[in-house]
Design brief:
By secondary structure, the chain is α+β, with helices and mostly antiparallel strands. It folds into two domains: 72 residues, Orthogonal Bundle (Arc Repressor Mutant, subunit A); 83 residues, Orthogonal Bundle (Arc Repressor Mutant, subunit A), CATH 1.10.10.10. It has nine helices and six strands, in the order αβααββααβααββαα. Strand 5 and strand 6 form a beta hairpin. The chain is elongated, with a radius of gyration of 21 Å.
């Protein structure tokens, strides 16, 4: 077996920080935010963002089969979509079963209308919002407080896990929706 040789710094990236960045993204198993990475790498936020972009470009240039993805307000390593099907024999099963169509409807209402109460969800759907408990168990939504409305019902919002599971960096990455059409769905 040949001894590992360290690559040169010809691409201008500080080698020790680039290695630490790659190791952190691989080992964390979750998205790492800019401030967290900045502290670890002892770089400014701007330098960290630039290093992440350069690292991603280096992965692409070397044909690594994975990339850095901005998701959930941070960065993580992900397999290229065109390689995912080939990797299915070695990938772990999903952490939980697929969501039902009712749960996806409730999740969509929460994502686009948050914060929202259960009564508002039910009025928009024209049916039960009982799947909100399943969404809470899966850490896709959480209670953010109580509405000032009569009875002070709980208000729900999406979580960072929602962003991660759906590959979104922030809620602004949600697909555009005609707000008039969406609010017209409200039956109550």
């Amino acid at each position: 077996m040949k001894a590992r040789t360290r690559p040169s710094e010809e691409d201008g990236l500080p080698l020790d920080r680039r290695e630490l960045l790659g190791a952190a993204l691989l080992a964390a198993g979750r998205p790492l935010g800019v401030s967290e990475l900045s502290g670890l790498l002892t770089l400014s936020a701007a330098q960290t963002v630039a290093l992440v972009a350069a690292y991603d470009a280096a992965l692409l240039a070397m044909g690594a089969g994975f990339r850095v993805e901005a998701v959930g307000g941070g960065y993580r390593l992900v397999v290229l979509p065109e390689r995912a099907a080939q990797l299915s024999p070695v990938l772990a099963p999903p952490p939980f079963a697929a969501l039902s169509s009712a749960a996806l409807e409730v999740l969509a209402v929460i994502a686009y209308r948050q914060p929202v109460t259960r009564a508002e969800i039910e009025a928009m759907r024209g049916g039960s919002a009982s799947t909100v408990l399943t969404l809470q168990e899966r850490e896709l939504v959480r209670v953010t407080g109580r509405s000032p409305a009569v009875g002070q019902p709980l208000m729900y919002v999406t979580t960072a896990r929602f962003l991660i599971e759906f590959g979104l960096n922030s809620l602004t990455d949600l697909p555009e929706l005609d707000r008039d059409e969406f609010s017209g769905l409200l039956r109550g």
